[in-house]
């Protein structure tokens, strides 16, 4: 088993007034040669965006982009003719940039900040036709059990969002003292685990809010909730 710990207070940061960002990996003006990616996981940004503010129209290509609002409401428009679609807390959005598109994301509320995760995963297919999807997930379905949010477009799994990569994104809400054993798809995959909130003991490593840890060259990861905790899992191929 190989392990890498990513402490919350060691993330890159940016403060633009309207945007306060934390970067798990090198992004924009933040560069750390030891934090370029975790396998196919290229970006995990923890953003707080002020009311009525957001990212103006800009391009993307050949990247799988997943947005998870944690608090507040986002709105999205793009060159695929989607016009200001709302993405609420509890929903997840995916966008395959593929051969190229333009999009904009804004806080949907004028006076309330939004907190969201934006995740970029390197695709296993280049220049695909751009696509967009979003889905609401019931938080009750992840109480002390794994809730799959995103999987490969090639997987025969229903009721989840799809991306062009042999990857999985999941969440779990653990009760205090609950144990869990996460099973990886193959030993060629790794899993990046972000503590959204709470406190957990993962393979003898104590992790608190926004701490993260990556595991690879293993089949499973065992952990225990010290407090009521919410966790995000991003499982990806490691050959990058």
From TrEMBL:
Keywords: Iron, Metal-binding
Tagged with keyword Metal-binding: yes
Ranges that cross the membrane: none
Cofactor, free-text remark: Binds 1 Fe cation per subunit.
Pfam family, one: Pirin
The keyword Metal-binding is assigned to this record: yes
Residue span(s) of domain Pirin N-terminal: 11-121
Residues given in the record as Fe cation binding sites: 58, 60, 103, 105
A GO molecular-function descriptor: metal ion binding
Domain Quercetin 2,3-dioxygenase C-terminal cupin: 150-236
Cofactor: Fe cation
Family recorded in the similarity comment: Belongs to the pirin family.
The protein, known as: Pirin N-terminal domain-containing protein
